[in-house]
């Protein structure tokens, strides 16, 4: 389903919106890893997946999206898994840790929601990375925010940054998690400024 969806959606969006430009693809590490991205529109989910093809992304998504059965079926087939953003339970860690252990790529939007404003980053991506020992690949999306803008064929860019790595046996205390989360924010800011 993921492969079929990729080919269909990629063809349609290329016809409507033009080509995708991928910058710093050499920064992409070997799997497993966590890819984190700014979240300004539904398009960043799609174009981030295009940028990492043929490696599928297993996206962490808010559980509210899984309440309608047809949408739940589709999201599950597209490798998404639910998480309760307000009261994250053990599954918030268990599912991504299992995926990473099986050499998969996990996608997380650390702002937790779509926004075009500066927003604080949640600590989940860093916590999972530290517990699993994998690196974090930061990315930003620059391009259309709406379908109308897509039809105007504005430039579409996904830009990767330097992976954030973690030393073996690093202490997963709040101070270290906050420090690495701040490092992630700085990389996002640098990628945004590099036009």
TrEMBL record:
Keyword hit for Chloroplast: no
Domain Phospholipid/glycerol acyltransferase: residue ranges: 33-144
GO molecular function, one term: 1-acylglycerol-3-phosphate O-acyltransferase activity
GO BP field: phosphatidic acid biosynthetic process
InterPro entries, A to Z: Plipid/glycerol_acylTrfase
Keywords, sorted A to Z: Acyltransferase, Transferase
Pfam entry (one): Acyltransferase
Protein's UniProt keywords contain Acyltransferase: yes
Protein name: 1-acyl-sn-glycerol-3-phosphate acyltransferase
């Amino acid at each position: 389903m993921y492969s079929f969806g990729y080919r269909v959606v990629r063809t349609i969006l290329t016809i409507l919106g033009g080509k995708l430009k991928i910058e710093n693809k050499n920064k992409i590490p070997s799997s497993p890893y966590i890819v984190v991205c700014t979240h300004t529109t539904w398009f960043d989910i799609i174009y981030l997946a295009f940028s990492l093809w043929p490696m599928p992304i297993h996206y962490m998504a808010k559980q509210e999206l899984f309440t309608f059965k047809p949408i739940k079926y589709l999201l599950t087939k597209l490798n998404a898994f639910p998480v309760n953003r307000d009261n994250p339970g053990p599954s918030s860690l268990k599912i991504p840790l299992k995926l990473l252990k099986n050499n998969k790529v996990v996608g997380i939007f650390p702002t937790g929601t779509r926004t075009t404003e500066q927003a604080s980053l949640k600590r989940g991506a860093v916590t999972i990375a530290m517990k699993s020992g994998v690196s974090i690949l930061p990315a930003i999306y620059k391009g259309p925010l709406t379908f109308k803008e897509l039809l105007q064929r504005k430039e579409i860019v996904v830009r990767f940054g330097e992976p954030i790595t973690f030393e073996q046996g690093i202490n997963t205390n709040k101070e270290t998690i906050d420090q690495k989360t701040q490092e992630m924010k700085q990389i996002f800011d640098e990628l945004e400024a590099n036009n």
